[in-house]
Amino acid sequence: PAIVVDFGTATNFDVVSADGAFLGGVIAPGLESGFEVFASKTALLPRVAPAFPVSAIGRTTVANLQIGMYRGATAMVDGLVRAIREEWEAGARVIATGGLAGLVASHCATVDVIDLDHTLKGVGWGYDRLFPLTV
User: Mind listing the domains of the chain with CATH numbers?
Assistant: First the structure.
């Protein structure tokens, strides 16, 4: 059993059984979407470069945004994974994938594996299951 967390436009949590069946999931706002909303919907908040903050307390607007978004994302991932494990499968492995997985997932206490290409591998696996080679 696994929980696949995909850090893309949205942050998706896919809950998958040991035999590969999709059981359900969670869709949450993605980091890039959050930054885009701040930059486009507020008059004074700037676009912020991707960087995981060292501190938990910011002293500049940029640091405050980075802390809120990145540390907030890690807290969200850890909190949702713990809730899913409590409700479903305590031993489920957590695989992080997607564009920002390398930056964020390494700071999540609940993530077991970071595989930036996991989604693409899953598409290939699904294709092979649907269209097996016959020789």
Answer: 2-130 (3.30.420.40)
pTM: 0.88
Copy the structure tokens of residue 68: 């809120």
pLDDT tens figures, 58-110: 999 999 999 999 999 999 999 999 999 999 989 999 999 998 999 999 999 99
What values do phi and psi take at 71, rounded to 5? -70, -35
